[in-house]
Amino acid sequence: MSPIHPTVWASALAFQIINATCIGGWLAGYGPTTSFDWAGRAVLIEVGMMIWAAGFLGNVYHDDELREVRRAAARKQERKATEQEEKGGNKAVDKVYEVPQNGLFRFILYPHYLCEWIEWGGFWLIGGMGCVPARSFLINEIATMTPRAVSGWRWYSKRFSKEQIGNRKAIIPGLL
Length: 176
What we know:
There is one protein chain. The protein is mainly α. It has helices at 6-29, 35-38, 42-86, 111-127, 132-159, 162-165. The radius of gyration is 21 Å and the shape is elongated. The two termini are 28 Å apart.
């Protein structure tokens, strides 16, 4: 894993605390609080939980796939560095980049982003369509992750051949 600057870490922590406070405060103050409010919501909550779980599992799977690609590349780099050192050469080796091939990576380059959206879409359904913090979080994720995924798609397209990228899209299979 790459090193992270303390400011980034502190910002992420602050965001998580603020986000949790907003969602918890909204659910406690404006969400369903009486049995009348909960009536008829069981199916929506169950569907939302299934959507959330599918997104969560997809997110974990694809994040692990990325980590495995990085681990494999690191092992390959270490082998090359050892071989060069044994030959009496310089130990420095260029960083290795690879295109992930498993799961939704066959269709898009950023499936972990898509799965994150699915996860938060399920959470929004659980909280109710009027759950402003969950809806805002989902909209903000889409607004910030989409340009990053498109930029990353361009980077992959420049770095790798058309055969390696194929017809993969950035974040939404077949569309974007």
